Amino acid sequence: MFNIEKYSKVKSVSEAVSLLEKNPRARLIAGGTDVLIRLREGEEDYTELIDIHDLAELMDIQKRENGDISMGAGVTFSQVMENAIIKESIPVIAQAAGTIGGPQVRNVATIGGNICNGAISADSAAALFVLDAVLEIERVNGARELPVREFYLGPGRVALEHGDVLKAIIVKQENYAGYGANYYKYAMRNAMDIATIGCAATCKLDGEVIEELKIAFTVAAPKPMRAQTAEDGARGKRVTDENIEKIAALVMEDLNPRDSWRASKNFRLQVIRILAKRVITAAIEDAGVQR
Amino acid sequence: MRETISFVVNGEHYSKNIDVRLSLLELLREEGLTSVKHGCGVGECGACTVLIDNTPIDSCMYLAVWVDGKTIRTVEGEIKDGKISQVQQSYIDAGAVQCGYCTPGFIMTSTAFVEKHKGQNVDRDEIRKEHAGNLCRCTGYETIICAVESCLKD
Lengths: 291, 154
Description:
The complex is a heterodimer.
Chain A: E1 6-9, H1 13-22, E2 27-29, H2 35-40, E3 48-51, E4 61-63, E5 69-72, H3 77-82, H4 84-89, H5 91-97, H6 103-106, H7 111-116, H8 123-130, E6 134-139, E7 142-147, E8 152-154, E9 157-158, E10 165-171, E11 180-186, E12 197-206, E13 209-218, E14 225-226, H9 228-234, H10 241-250, H11 265-287
Parallel strand pairs in A: 1-3, 2-3
Antiparallel strand pairs in A: 4-5, 5-10, 6-7, 6-10, 8-9, 11-12, 12-13, 13-14
Helix pairs in contact in A: 5-8, 9-10, 10-11
Chain B: E1 2-9, E2 12-19, H1 24-30, E3 49-52, E4 55-58, E5 71-73, H2 86-94, H3 103-117, H4 124-130, H5 141-153
Parallel strand pairs in B: 1-5
Antiparallel strand pairs in B: 1-2, 3-4, 3-5
Helix pairs in contact in B: 2-5, 3-5
């Protein structure tokens, strides 16, 4: 039995927002794959729950008339992997979703939960970063939008205030149309593991010249990060082995991996170097240039 | 804190007033469905796998109240008219059972997999990937994969 002291099942996001407003101790539970584990471990912060599990309002995936794609925060990773719109337009999200946990976890864990818990290893984060996703956050006085790059504040900390509910994740057409993309999760095991380093990239080419490269890493800094210096260095460069080496070498300018029991700093640096090259190359190939 | 929920387990309708603090694992075991095993309790090992609306989930980290309106399948319900299912028989034929603790969870994962991919050409990697949420500490994976493969062929 979980140590739940207060529990309310809500029927809408607005009901969740108003209940959160009334109770400063209340927390949201969606898929439960994090919250229930924490409860089981006896964490007292999670004993008063507002349940948004299976809330239809949060489970919609649609392409808007302007081509932007909106994913409800309560969509599970399995739904992300199987959704036709996502597979067609932003397959890098489906690719990242497929690396999370195992099948049973992916069948209940939600994409919103994956970023709201602030884990620096979140597999969906790197993909959302390179797609410049925008978060739709609901609160008592209305909704606001926040770029995902401004969402993470530090390990386990995100820019949500008490009373905020992440409603949807938006990927604008200008950030996926014409881009190739790739995600690679380096972990010790192929399943049921947390990333040692995660890396995603999107790339837009003009013939054999890189028009725009976006590259992001997880577990390579105190929060998921874009490697801005490498991105700037890539602009206008021809696709050659030498240039890819040079761009990949620049990613370290913006990263600062740490030692932990999972991996040493030096090992992570090595993985970052290898992944940068591998993922940039794969994104370029996906954009249409055979290497 | 109690809630009344209705659900179906192995074809049988239930309407129960339950404590909201219960996991689905606890609810099912209290109902006598002890094929559902308590392994790690944190969604790593898959011993507690059941199908909810034909999708495998870890019942240890799933609130019992969430099954309201849903259909649950456990190994107990896979026996029809005194006959075990094709997946169960194939596990026996392949020798895919050692100590047996992980077996009911594996059987449910395999059952969902076989129903989804019946008649398709599925490689062993795909079978492994879709069974990655179930651990067998007797390391009987090879025979389990053979069992699943044989079900897809028939």
